[in-house]
Write a structure and sequence with these properties.
Helix content is 40%, strand content 17%. By secondary structure, it is an alpha/beta fold. The strands form 3 sheets. A 7-stranded parallel beta sheet has the order 3-2-1-4-5-6-9, with helices on both faces. Helix 4 links the parallel strand 5 and strand 6.
Length: 283
């Protein structure tokens, strides 16, 4: 029996991985977070509180654990001690990383998060633990944080770079890959770029949301300068996104077959993801 811990289990991806492991029949699953409510977890999953900035708190949570899925949510300075502590307990470590090595302009723009992920990856590689890095592209779930509030209020989404294409990936597909990689052999030393099945511009994604809702929802393109004043992003994140979207205009999104190769099925389409989350876009 492989005993698995999910660190960062209360976030969108960590929660999806925890649910996938439980649904797949994994035993001994531990959901670890600074604040985790046992009542919100699937049956059979144990809750454990720990903090990546306090590495000694991980010892009890990781006792007798074989594999760890890690979503890094702590400051960079906490990484060396936390990774060392995790490697004391686990034989296998699967990291939710980013596709910053992917040769596509969308992923090659200046990104402070890429430097953090590269540092964490280096620490993991040096730790001696068997590692696998998952590199999802654009999360489909971003559509909720980015567009849902505007769509709940009306039929127009004001947004920059309407023609920038991405391949949004459903968090259930990331979780399905993680569930297999955590339990199956043959993935050590590998990294996987995970994408949805379709290249869709931002305008096309907004249109699909409207179609699922039964409404005509359109993206009204605004300038980067307007985006900086209208959209609720910190300046560093806004600059990063604007640069990535600008670089993606006129190019198809980067697509891979890694989800299907690992899970044995095609990833969900963006339309399927919207249908699953349609309540988030309704007033």
């Amino acid at each position: 029996m492989t005993r698995i811990a999910v660190i960062g289990a209360t976030g969108t991806i960590g929660q999806a991985v925890t649910e996938a492991l439980a649904a797949g029949g994994a035993s001994g699953v531990v959901a670890i977070s600074r604040r985790v409510d046992a009542a919100s977890l699937p049956p059979g999953v144990r809750a454990a509180q720990a903090d990546l900035t306090q590495p000694e708190s991980l010892d009890g949570a990781l006792a007798n654990v074989d594999a760890v899925f890690l979503v890094w949510t702590a400051p960079p300075d906490a990484a060396p001690a936390a990774i060392e502590r995790i490697a004391r307990h686990a034989r296998r470590l699967v990291l939710l990383s980013a596709p910053y090595k992917t040769p596509h302009p969308f992923f090659q723009q200046p990104n402070p998060m890429a430097a953090l992920q590269a540092r964490i990856e280096g620490l993991i590689e040096a730790s001696g633990v068997a590692w696998t890095f998952l590199r999802p592209g654009m999360f489909a779930a971003n559509a909720i944080g980015w567009w849902a509030s505007q769509i709940r209020k009306g039929d127009v989404v004001r947004w920059p770079y309407a023609d920038a294409a991405t391949a949004p990936i459903d968090e259930r597909d990331i979780a399905a890959v993680a569930e297999r990689v955590l339990q199956d052999d043959g993935h050590a030393g590998r990294d996987y770029v995970l994408t949805g099945p379709d290249s869709l511009t931002q305008a096309e994604q907004v249109k699909i949301i409207g179609e699922v809702l039964g409404r005509d929802v359109v993206l009204e393109e605004i300038s980067p300068e307007q985006a900086r004043t209208e959209l609720p992003f910190p300046p560093v994140a806004m600059n990063m996104l604007l640069g990535a979207w600008r670089a993606a205009v006129g190019l198809p999104a980067f697509l891979t077959n890694d989800v299907a190769a690992i899970t044995g099925r095609q990833p969900h389409t963006f339309r399927e993801w919207v249908a699953w989350n349609v309540s988030a876009f309704r007033a």
